[in-house]
Amino acid sequence: MLAKRNSYKFNTEFLRGLPVDEVAGGWRVKSQPSIRVPFQGRRFYRHGWQSWSFSGWLSAGHTFPTPPSHPMAIRMNEDLPYASRLDRVSAGVAMLEDEHGNALLLGAADPGGRVFHEENALRGACEEGSGDWFIATGATDSLLEAYARFLQTRYGAPRHPEAPRVWCSWYSLYYFITQPVLLQVLEAFSDLPFDVFQIDDGWQQAVGDWQPNQKFPAGMDGLAHRIHATGRMAGLWLAPFLVHERSRLFREHPEWLLRDPEGQPLLAARNWGGRVYALDVTQTAVQDWLVALMRQVRRWGYEYVKLDFLYAAALPAQRQREMPREQAYRLGLEILRHGLGDAFLLACGAPILPSLGLCDAIRISPDVASYWQNLPYQRVSGNSAPGLQNALYTSLHRLWLRPLVHLDPDVAYFRRRFLHLSERQQNLQRDLAWICGYRATSDLPWWLTPAEREALRAFWTHQPQVQREGAYRFLLEDRLVDFTPVLQAPPRLPLPSPLASHLGFLQDAFWLGGPALLAVRHHDLPGR
Ligand code: 9PG
């Protein structure tokens, strides 16, 4: 049975004896498999756990591109229990390739699956009991497609044939959004063809207190109303599983938090100038609160919701109702989905495979930035550090997920102002957005020249036909796009981590925060 399927000169004898059933494109196996391959694995495909975790090929001798070094960066970007062997553990699926471009793929059907790369073997282990596994062998390029088809039989296909075209406030204004500046953007883009005007981080009183702050005097309902008046859908960012130490929610409901083994609130992140904890979504009171929050967002008028830092609900922790952590995560996401009804749900900072079937789109990369890389920051956060190279790299290794969910590769830049990318680098991101069919930008209208504005219009007007020509080469209509420059290893910075973290922060403050601050202080608005 195994030999019949194997049309390659690729010996699959090693699969004999496993209790497998034939399924489309491969085999299903019920036990937790450990498969020893009869070849020297040349490359290992590693799939990162959540949106921001590195995904790509790792080869022997060639170390993991840049693992995060700081414990908090590991917690916020990687899968905590396996952080000491980042280059040997893959979330959900992995491949081991021989020197001829043939490979073995092992992928989990259920949440909780991890694949370990051991001495010439792939071993599947599931945190939630044995579960089903998918095995395929053959030409490397076709294997992830077969796995995606296998997952589709469980999780279905996207509800919407196309993803909406989005303007998102984050990658120009960052935290410095205000109601007046957003309304000016909305107005100045009134003739451009996009679907969603999405308000990102910066509108809320605190992370956990999801009420508008004083920068939004008309309230979030007032703003949604103004957005609707222009014919757009209104979009809103929230991090519903997070609780900041300086929020009212933290003071009022300390009993709602996930706990560490000592019974203390479990640290989920450090951000927004303090410690951030995570909600225990197995508690009924928390579930009620989450549903009410999502209903509130719908009542305000938002029909596109970007839910961020979702990994927090899947951290290893003590929960009131004991259950495997990715099952708890799915429960939390199901509850959010229920509260949101038919709104478009973009999951971000989200465990990828456990989100399937419950959201409309997933961010598949770390954050882009107006620069190619921030080396000091990368010393701390590894390949999850913001930057265009890191974003492109991980996105390019996750395109196989496309039959299952819309893929958000993050925004593209059309401006040259306040941009530290070459035109070639900048175009790669636009082309990737077209390849994913997810077309978002954050550019401010008054930062664009007339020609750049027309390029943005063309981005939103046209959706080129895409044909894959190779692992990193695509035909967009008749134009060949080659992403191999993305694979160039960045130089290594021999900086101690604390110094690197300060330098990286300074770079971001100047290059990202600077222009944002200028824009909202009205120095930069038209007619001033
Ligand atoms: C808003 C942003 C944007 C962005 C998201 C997410 O490790 N970190 O400190 C870290 C901070 C922010 C971040 C990712 C990681 O970005 O991806 O699009 O919505 O939040 O705060």
Helix/strand layout:
Blueprint: H1 2-5, E1 20-23, E2 26-29, E3 34-36, E4 43-46, E5 56-59, H2 71-77, E6 89-91, E7 93-97, E8 102-108, E9 113-118, E10 121-126, E11 133-139, H3 140-155, E12 166-168, H4 170-173, H5 179-188, E13 196-199, E14 204-206, E15 209-212, H6 219-229, E16 233-238, E17 242-244, H7 248-252, E18 267-271, E19 274-278, H8 284-300, E20 304-307, H9 325-340, E21 344-347, H10 352-355, E22 361-363, H11 375-381, H12 388-396, E23 406-408, H13 423-436, E24 440-441, H14 450-461, E25 466-468, E26 473-476, E27 479-482, H15 497-520
Parallel strand pairs: 12-13, 12-24, 13-16, 16-20, 20-21, 21-22, 22-23
Antiparallel strand pairs: 1-2, 2-11, 3-10, 4-5, 4-7, 6-9, 7-8, 8-11, 9-10, 14-15, 17-19, 18-19, 25-26, 26-27
Helix pairs in contact: 8-9, 11-15, 12-13
The chain binds 4-nitrophenyl alpha-D-galactopyranoside (9PG).
Residues 76, 170, 200-201, 237, 271, 308, 348-349, 367 line the site of 4-nitrophenyl alpha-D-galactopyranoside.
Describe what you observe in this structure:
The chain is α/β, with parallel strands linked by helices. It folds into 2 domains: 13-155, no CATH class; 166-240 and 286-314 and 341-523, Alpha-Beta Barrel (TIM Barrel). Helices cover 30% and strands 21% of the residues. The chain is built from 15 helices and 27 strands. Strands 23-22-21-20-16-13-12-24 form an 8-stranded parallel sheet. The protein has a 7-stranded antiparallel sheet with strand order 1-2-11-8-7-4-5. Helix 11 (375-381) packs across helix 15 and helix 12 packs parallel to helix 13. It is globular and about 70 Å long. Mean pLDDT is 94; it is low at 1-9. The protein binds 4-nitrophenyl alpha-D-galactopyranoside. 4-nitrophenyl alpha-D-galactopyranoside (9PG) is lined by residues 76, 170, 200-201, 237, 271, 308, 348-349, 367. 4-nitrophenyl alpha-D-galactopyranoside binds next to loops.
